């Protein structure tokens, strides 16, 4: 289980480094609504994971984690976009995805 979590973190780090390297020469960067949305959705998923129980939690995190990963990835590779908020959102969504994998594994295997 720890290997999956470590691989997810390394994947997020590599995506962030590649996005920064790709756009390092761009001028006039700014935050757009995509940056704010990627960070807020990731924060919402983390808060939902620790504050609710039951089927709402399962559906919200199972649908929200891949959605957040895609939104953060798109925002990271968008030109003229500052990367810090999308990077933080990517790390938070990878944490929530790792937790979903770990909990899902224990629920499926009944251990």
Architecture overview:
With 111 residues, the chain is mostly helical. It has one domain (1-110). It has four helices and no strands. α2 runs antiparallel to α3 and α2 packs parallel to α4 (84-109). The longest helix has 26 residues, at 84-109. The mean pLDDT is 78. Keywords: Membrane, Transmembrane, Transmembrane helix. The chain crosses the membrane at residues 6-21, 33-50, 56-77, 84-108.
Overall pLDDT metric: 78
Helix content: over 70%
| Total strand segments | 0
Secondary-structure element sequence? Answer: HHHH
Please state roughly what percent of the residues sit in beta strands, choosing from under 5%, 5-15%, 15-25%, 25-35%, 35-45% or over 45%.
under 5%
Q: Helical region count?
A: 4
**Overall form:** flat
The class by helix and strand makeup works out as mainly alpha
Poorly predicted spans: none
Number of domains: 1
Distance N to C terminus: 13 Å
Q: What's the main sheet like?
A: none
Query: Rounded to an integer, what's the Rg over CA atoms?
Result: 15 Å
Keywords: Membrane, Transmembrane, Transmembrane helix
Short structural description:
The protein is an all-alpha fold. Helices cover 79% and strands 0% of the residues.
SSE topology:
Blueprint: H1 2-22, H2 33-51, H3 55-76, H4 84-109
Helix pairs in contact: 1-4, 2-3, 2-4, 3-4
Transmembrane segments: 6-21, 33-50, 56-77, 84-108
Keywords: Membrane, Transmembrane, Transmembrane helix
Keywords:
111 residues; mainly alpha; 0% strand
